[in-house]
Request: fold
Amino acid sequence: MGLILVLLVLDKRALGATPSIRSVRNFYGVLSVAEEDGKRKLYHGRVEHGFQYIDPARERQAGAYFGQDSGVAIAISHHQHLGNVRIGTLGLGPGTLAAYGREGDVMRFYELNPAVIDMAKRYFTYVRESRSEVQIVPGDGRVSLEGEVSQHFDVLVLDAFRGASVPVHLLTVEAFAVYLRHLQPGGTLVVNVTNRYVDLRPVVRAQANHFGLTSILIQSSGDPGLGTYACSYVLLAREPSWLSDPNIIHGARGWDRMPSRFPLWKDDYSSLLDVIVWR
Reply:
């Protein structure tokens, strides 16, 4: 088991890490900010959690896993066309999603690691220059949501699964029940399942089936010229109509090939061995 864990955390960057301009170690690991290729990047260990262009002409551009063709951007854009929105996000990173906020919108971030909050405010401008009202709630996102009255989110984003250490308590039946309590009836739950170590798609598909939600998978190939990465998002909604829009469906491929029967993760049961990507 020790060998498996070592293999999971190894990354190409281990062969030659980029010098950081700030590095902090706390209970949650090592967090660092590095500059390379005209970008300021945030790393948790060896895993990149997003970047911002250093060039002021491009610093408001949402790149990495959050480009215009990503599932999360598609969901936000849809709801913004209907009016001002409330968007919740579990996971702050450098605060990239705040770039999509408009005047009158509310962007509410839940972030477990206090060092991430400090880095996002100190070394990146997404949060402080967002046109929306930005709220940051420190602490475990699920625990915070459990203690709050319904936030009536139009979009609720789960963006905490890119590393090898997966917070499985955010993917259980009990957790999804909390998320749905905080969503507007016509709202969308968005799960970033981009991960090179584990395949969380069948886990989310099982939760969608359990709660009777319409769900689609949006996979984007990324574009180096635009600074976007390949990414995969699952969009889930009680109201299926907008997820059936032809403009959405054309980007949704492969979801029907996911296992229709998969062990349902609960607070008292989950198995990462079932989802490890063996290389």
Notes: The helical segments are 2-9, 71-80, 114-123, 141-146, 173-181, 201-211, 246-249. Confidence is low (pLDDT under 50) at residues 1-16. The domain at 63-274 is CATH 3.40.50.150 (Rossmann fold). The CA atoms of residues 152 and 184 lie 5 Å apart.
